[in-house]
Write a structure and sequence with these properties.
Two copies of one chain form a homodimer. By secondary structure, chain A is an alpha/beta fold. Chain A folds into two domains: 115 residues, NAD(P)-binding Rossmann-like Domain (Rossmann fold, 3-Layer(aba) Sandwich), CATH 3.40.50.720; 192 residues, P-loop containing nucleotide triphosphate hydrolases (Rossmann fold, 3-Layer(aba) Sandwich), CATH 3.40.50.300. The first copy, chain A, has eleven helices and eleven strands. In chain A, the strands form two sheets. In chain A, strands 7-8-6-9-10-11 form a six-stranded parallel β-sheet, with helices on both faces. Chain A is globular. Chains A and B meet through helix 7, helix 8 and helix 9 of A and helix 7, helix 8 and helix 9 of B.
């Protein structure tokens, strides 16, 4: 996948801000890569970008319409389809984070084909992968891991990229989920590849590179999540990372989607991730903690981070509140 | 998948015995479910069953033609296709362990459709799965795990089924790979499901059952295999097994397909499997060792098993040489 910029972000008729969180993530991390947003009547979300019509966006050079909104029940309304067809007519490609493929909409697929436009269904890998070899490769790699799903692995990886680039380091975010792929303009949705190729897809995503170049690989799931741990382990082996950052949300009552499963102890989670990572990266270790403390008041957040630093002997950051400078310091 | 018996085993023009190992496995474990074998000119393999023509097999009641042979380069020859078409005409379904789908052969697909026959491409799941819940379910479950791929996990699981049934226990082999599925008449090729659903597919394969019923689940890969460990971990969590049997081939020089990767220490492999299994099955433990000692002379094999028993405090069996009675004793 090689999704062309700049983007026009389509928010559709999103019923609330959460429904547009994919578009919001793109705007947050790649504002310079977006000409604006397109909202239909009744839309209750915003990315904080200028509202543009399709024609205005085309005039500003938009190359790709980004479907960055969760639709209800997996169905694409007529209004959405009309928007897509018109975008194709105006010269844009379309990239979608929807679960259902836009390439399966006959009218959209036919129009794209006729006009020579590209359709990117980023939840679905568009190529085959080789089986992983596990062989050492050059370059430096960091993988975000977690105590659970949705604890800020993507956000942390992007924050690390921004911080490292600001320091003049060579660093690239490597996306493994839909929002990350739309942000990066490429990547692979590793939880959607055939099981035998999880590690192979990850090796493909983060190939050999310059000795001083960092790949910052977006983790998925958790070794302690009963639904998805296979994906997490395949990623861990394929990433061959020397550095892991453990992501966590303090106070979460149970594992996401599993009301009877407790969140693991952070020390256990560090130990198991390091142990498993060393199969392909013998010196792998956790170099920092990234907490999402958004549910805590500032004093509690500060105390929580301080306590974690003391307990684990690692820099503990909240990418939003404190930035990830302390973790990059540790890497350097 | 619900593949009807009895089978006619198709060996094609297999160049050697190894090319027909899938058919051989079916004959070895389900001889009573097979009417005979069908070989084309030049075939150099045998399952030790009567050679039959398609017409003779149909007269003996064959319900399914089993394509139990690896073809060269993934292409199906004209001769094979003629055999398949004639089998459909004679009333048989077809089940194939080939990597390429027989359902993608237009002539075969059309004929099957026209006649109302079923085509089973057992390497490819034919349904969608839910995400795993990890919730406790009734029934007893055993999973074979391993230090590596191809160390006898399927063979051990089937040997356990045979031994337990001979003792009057309720036990069912649950297949997770192509040969196992053809032997069992159903199952799911877990390494071919979408990565997010490895554990979910395993939960589906081994559902809640009577409190005294054993599911004997065929393991895949190894937590220590850099290519496939994600599949192994997803299986381990989805199986929710109380009992694990560690399979191993003494003397193997390196991990299968990875010449630079050493085979893990058995104690490490036991510890990591138990630790990970306990996420969904808190009392999970390794109850026995199953070694493939076929490369060793009888005295060395006997000594190797004895030493392993002493070192690990577990019954150590070679399913072929000693049978798995000692492991079943330990379970009882």
């Amino acid at each position: 996948m090689d999704i062309r910029r700049p983007y026009l972000l389509f928010l559709g008729d999103a019923g609330d801000q959460l429904a547009a969180k994919t578009a919001y993530g793109v705007a947050q991390w790649r504002r310079d890569g977006c000409v604006g947003q397109l909202r239909l009547e009744g839309c209750r979300a915003t990315c904080g970008l200028p509202d543009l019509t399709l024609e205005e966006a085309a005039a500003k050079g938009a190359q790709t319409l980004i479907i960055g909104v969760a639709n209800r029940g997996g169905r694409v309304s007529e209004l959405w389809q009309d928007t897509m067809l018109r975008a194709l007519d105006l010269g844009m490609d379309i990239a979608s984070g929807l679960h259902n493929r836009i390439a399966d909409l006959p009218a959209v697929a036919e129009r794209a084909q006729a006009l020579g436009r590209s359709l990117f269904d980023v939840r679905h890998p568009d190529r085959d992968f080789d089986v992983a070899t596990g062989e050492p490769r050059s370059g430096r790699r960091l993988l975000t891991v977690g105590t659970d799903c949705s604890v800020g692995k993507m956000f942390t990886s992007l924050a690390l990229e921004r911080e490292m680039r600001a320091r003049g380091l060579k660093a690239d975010f490597r996306a493994t989920g839909q929002t990350g792929i739309l942000i990066a303009g490429g990547g692979v949705s590793v939880d959607a590849v055939v099981a035998d190729f999880i590690s192979g897809a990850t090796e493909w995503l983060s190939p050999a590179n310059d000795p001083d170049h960092w790949d910052l690989i977006e983790g998925q799931g958790s070794l302690f999540h009963a639904s998805y741990a296979g994906v997490s382990l395949g990623l861990l082996h394929g990433a061959q990372a020397e550095a892991l950052v453990m992501c966590h949300e303090p106070g979460r009552p149970h594992m996401r989607g599993l009301p009877k499963s407790p969140v693991p102890d952070i020390a256990d989670c560090i130990a198991l991730n390091e142990r498993c990572a060393r199969l392909t990266s013998p010196n792998a270790r956790v170099v920092g903690l990234a907490f999402n403390t958004s549910a805590l008041d500032p004093q509690t957040a500060e105390r929580t981070l301080k306590e974690a630093e003391d307990r684990y002997g690692l820099p503990a950051a909240d990418p939003v509140r404190t930035g990830v400078g302390a973790i990059v310091d540790r890497l350097a």
